[in-house]
Amino acid sequence: MTEAADADLYLAAQFLDSVEQVRIATENRVRDRERRGLTTRERLRWERDLGAMRALERTAILDLTRMLAAHPLGPWVQGVHGIGEKSCARFLATVGNPVWNGAEGRPRRGPGELFAYLGQDVRNGKAPRRQRGVASNWNGQARARLKIITDAIVTQPDSPFHERYRRAKAYYVERDGETERPIVVDARARRIAAKEFLKALFNEALRLGLDKPAGPLRSSPPTDALAQQHPEKTSTSFGVRNA
């Protein structure tokens, strides 16, 4: 995959985010107006506008899945049941290359470094949390995207990672069930399932040779490079996606 294809996945995910946010905000605005009363003419206009937004959102989702299909990790994602193509495409667009540390310009030393980047490591026996006055060293947006994938793993028995979640939960219930709240026990099992997914993704990226600095997939190209590749989208704001 070229840098342009990597940028296409990121742009498609950003566009879907924007369309989705506008559609949700508009639906909330319509509900608020309905509580205060809408005329028939106003209702028809809002329904027309929302219909157009939903159609655009469907098109954006299809565009994102097409970009995923062209991604080196796309065939692997599409072959894994119970994780969702759209969710994984958004996750990859946020994370970038799972085996490449873009901030330091080198391959990641192992899955553990990816865990830490996503806030899935254990520090002093506990999962990392945001603390007042302390800078977080994980990617919050990517962590949120990973949570969506983990939720799908938990609720989809046909996911290859669901059994790991089930066994982990049974273990933690037996070990900590009398001393910890059920929500804490479940969170620990979910973290194990998330790590299994990340390890599988990391290993697939290694198999494809994406840990090479000149490999087909790297961290996000600089803003200038993206602007040159997509001059019609220069108004889009690009941020650093990898660490």
Detailed description of the structure:
The protein has 243 residues and is mostly helical. The protein folds into 2 domains: 1-71 and 220-233, no CATH class; 73-216, no CATH class. 63% of the residues lie in helices and 2% in strands. The chain has a two-stranded antiparallel ribbon with strand order 1-2. Strand 1 (100-101) and strand 2 form a beta hairpin. The two termini are 20 Å apart. The model is unreliable at 214-243 (pLDDT under 50).
Short description, anyone?
With 243 residues, the chain is mostly helical. The chain has helices at 3-36, 40-69, 74-79, 85-95, 111-117, 140-155, 162-176, 182-207, 223-229, and strands at 100-101, 106-107.
Low confidence ranges: 214-243
Shape: globular
The domain count comes to 2
DSSP strand content? under 5%
Strand line-up in the sheet with most strands: 1-2
The total of helices stands at: 9
**SS-derived structural category:** mainly alpha
Helix content: 55-70%
